[in-house]
Amino acid sequence: MSTKLHIVGGGLAGSEAAWQAAEAGAEVILHEMRPVRGTDAHQTDSLAELVCSNSFRSDDAQNNAVGLLHEEMRRAGSLVMRAADAHKLPAGGALAVDRHGFSAAVTEALEHHPRVRISREEITTLPPPEWGRAIIATGPLTSASLGAAIGEATGQDQLAFFDAIAPIVHRESINFDIAWFQSRYDKEGPGGGVADYINLPMDEAQYKAFVAALLDGEKTDFKEWEKSTPYFEACLPIEVMAARGEQTLSFGPMKPVGLQDPRKTERHYAVVQLRQDNRLGTLWNMVGFQTKLKHAEQVRIFRTIPGLENAQFARLGGLHRNTFINSPRLLDEQLRLKSQPHLRFAGQVTGVEGYVESAAIGLLAGRFAAAEILGLAIGPPPSTTAFGALLAHITGGADERTFQPMNVNFGLFPPFPKTAKIRGKDRKQAMSARALEDLSGWLGDKQAAE
């Protein structure tokens, strides 16, 4: 069997897997089909391109599971987190990045790594056994031919859902006679700012008219075979949320709580938030406004939002189909395909949701594969860590009969004994402290083995 590691897919998971394996001492060939073949969502041929939001979500390692995952990845030498930290933007308590600077940094690091070779080609079938160990990290936009090969190899029908992209607005086109800067609850972000979001207010009449326009707006048509595909609940198109009830948005992405217009004494009925999308601060992402409205309808309807009446859009929202496998049924605890153990899967195709979760699974897959190649023994991380909790969920913790994509959350972590009597916010902080302590042991064991 070859001693090289082949990785198919140069997104967040594939890039992180390549970095981890190469840093561990393995020779890596990273296969990326762009620009030989494009996708419906990517705009560049850079590795680790962010095609949806530019946010890695909360960076609070003490009270938030995704923030804890950030910290675990940093401690594990993550390339994705190194690039994110180097290109972070003001975003309250979240970690948002300049998307172009971020992907350029990941691409440059891998292009210059002495043990990584990047092959720009489309892989249309599963890597054959003679390639040796391989990782499939093709993400939500797996090509039709490779997707068919995966379906044939797994013996399962592919599961799929739609993922939607939010629009981006040029800052200079926002009306600041109406808009104001503030983070929700004035929460301080990684850069120390408490006013990292642009806020656009609505009164009750404006809000209800906006909801009605969303419901009446012309949407993207589905192909017949796509009509039964479910959405991921954490990334619903805004018009789908609106259809669940007139007040749904005012309790969701347009909730006014924690925000106070400095020019008003009363609280607004609803508020739209925009988050900085590039380092220059010229582009702002409409938070929670992923949509399947047709482009002309987006311009018409979103310009009815006070402050966006003259909005110029750098990118309009869109919709793409996402695919993933039934990992609890198909993968072992080291992400190997049970029927073909020379193959591993990583990233969103395994049924994790979110940039950081995808990269984290890539990190683990890269380490596991490199260890096999180098003749080292590495067990899975403890289930008390964010790494371990997420891995355990997708490789057996979830019900394979109802398996759906999952973000990392404290509900995946093993609880404390009832005798511990740890509750509420203290419980989250205690889980985080336990996780980082246990992670230290796992990383130490790995480093000792090397």
Question: Which features characterize this protein?
Answer:
Elongation Factor Tu (Ef-tu), domain 3; 450 residues; six-stranded antiparallel sheet; 17 strands; 32% helix; 12 helices; six-stranded mixed sheet; alpha+beta; FAD/NAD(P)-binding domain
Describe this structure in words.
The protein has 450 residues and is of the alpha+beta class. The chain is 32% helix and 17% strand. The chain has 12 helices and 17 strands. The strands form 4 sheets. Strands 6-2-1-7-17-16 form a 6-stranded mixed beta sheet, with helices on one face. A hairpin with a 2-residue loop joins strand 16 (336-337) and strand 17. It is globular. The two termini are 22 Å apart.
